Amino acid sequence: MEYETIREIQAYAYFFFSVFLVLMMYGYIHHLYSSEKKGTKDYEKYGKIALDDNIDSIPVEKYKAQDRDRLQKEENKGEL
Fold first, then answer.
1. Residue 25: its H or E element
2. pTM to 2 decimal places
C-alpha cells in the first residue's frame, strides 16, 4: 500500500470513529435525562458524593433489607 492510501484510510477511520463516539455520548446523555425524568435514578445526588466526602456523611442510598438479603444469597450461590 502506498503512504497516501494509508493516510486516507486513517482519515476515514478517524472520521467514522469520531461520529461513533458522538452518537454514543448523545445516547448516554439521553439515557441519563430519560431515567431521571422517569424517576428511576437521580444522578444529581451522586454528583454530591465528590463534594461531601466525609466519613460521617449520610449515604446517598440506603439498602433495603430485601436487597441486602438478595445480594447475600447471590454471593453465597457463587461460593458453592
1. helix 3-38
2. 0.56
